[in-house]
Write a structure and sequence with these properties.
The chain has three domains: 7-105, no CATH class; 117-181, OB fold (Dihydrolipoamide Acetyltransferase, E2P) (Beta Barrel); 197-280, no CATH class. Helix content is 33%, strand content 13%. The chain has helices at 20-29, 45-58, 68-85, 95-102, 198-203, 207-210, 219-228, 234-242, 250-262, 268-280; strands spanning 7-10, 16-18, 117-122, 128-131, 134-137, 146-151, 155-160, 172-177, 190-191.
Length: 321
């Protein structure tokens, strides 16, 4: 095989410059790669024929899948079913029977290899990186800096790039679901995470009004924003509320915002009060208390203002203290 994910350059004969990640995978699973000559189909004809036959058996009926996870699960179940149906060519029983007998004699597998393709990227001044014509947001503190992009089949992970002056290599910066669209007729998409721009709006609260990243906020935050931006200083107050997600769980902040909106008092002070009660697990409403019989009043108070005349004496000034 001479796949681009395995070989960087093909040399003479069997000489290959192996990709660093493929070499790491070979070392992880303890096997030595063996490559065929280019354009030499007779060297791997049997393998390709087996793949073609298996493909025809697998895809005789082409189902429709909602997502990649559903496709992978169906493919795994279909392969296991075919192993049980297909007889082994050299040994008695099916492929599944031979595999069950051989499996206890095999060496235990190590932990799964972290298979990704790595790219070095520079974050733009607008806190974006580009991959496959799509752009993905990165926290504002990394603007104009280089980062390492780890590409997986279903996601993109942005990591700190190795530097000589710090030992934070391997620290995850952010993660996005990968967009896979092979059509070159469509323009690329921009994927924002509004949390990445909190440091920007803390310096420039006005950016909250028309900022594209903040259209992706949860519904409760967007309703609160509509209310806040109607009053003077509301943009600064809204920024302070959004910044609470940097110190507290976002779900707790949302749980404090929603009752404040329902009560018609969506202010920073009220939301902070509700949030602290949630965090401290204190009840927001005090239950009614029934006093015991021993504390019942013996004499019921009366509304009699004439009692205050007894505080006055003729010819003398007295003050209540």
């Amino acid at each position: 095989m001479d796949a681009k994910t395995a070989v960087d350059r093909v040399g003479k004969g069997k000489q290959r410059e192996i990709n660093a990640r493929f070499k790491a995978m070979a070392s992880h699973y303890v096997f030595e790669p063996e490559f065929c000559n280019p354009a030499s189909g007779w060297e791997k004809g049997q393998v390709e024929k087996n793949v073609q036959d298996a493909r025809n058996r697998l895809w005789q009926v082409m189902p429709v899948f909602a997502d990649l996870a559903e496709l992978n699960q169906w493919l795994e179940d279909r392969c296991i079913a075919l192993w049980e149906e297909t007889p082994h060519k050299a040994l008695p029983g099916s492929i599944s029977d031979v595999w069950a007998a051989e499996k206890p004699m095999l060496m235990a597998l190590p932990p799964a290899f972290d298979g990704f393709i790595e790219h070095s990227k520079r974050v733009s001044p607008t806190c974006l990186i580009t991959f496959e014509r799509n752009r993905y947001s990165v926290p504002a503190s990394f603007a104009n800096r280089r980062v390492s992009l780890h590409v997986y089949p279903d996601r993109l992970v942005v990591m700190l790039e190795a530097c000589l002056w710090h030992d934070a290599e391997g620290q995850t910066v952010c993660e996005h679901e990968r967009i896979i669209d092979r059509s070159h007729r469509k323009s690329g998409k921009v994927v924002y995470d509004w949390r990445h721009y909190l440091a920007v709006i803390q310096r420039k609260p006005g950016a909250l009004r028309n900022g594209a990243p903040f259209t992706e906020m949860p519904e409760a935050f967007r309703r609160l924003q509509e209310h806040m931006l109607r009053k003077d200083g509301g943009d600064r107050e809204m920024v302070d509320i959004l910044s609470l997600v940097l110190q507290h769980n976002e779900e707790d902040v949302l749980r404090a915002v929603e009752p404040a909106l329902e009560a018609g008092v969506p202010t920073k002070t009220h939301i902070l009060n509700l949030l602290h009660r949630l965090i401290d697990r204190k009840p927001t409403e005090h239950p009614e208390v029934d006093p015991p019989e021993a504390l019942a009043l013996q004499t019921t108070p009366q509304a009699n203002l004439d009692r205050y005349d007894g505080l006055r004496q003729a010819g003398e000034k007295r003050h209540a203290s």
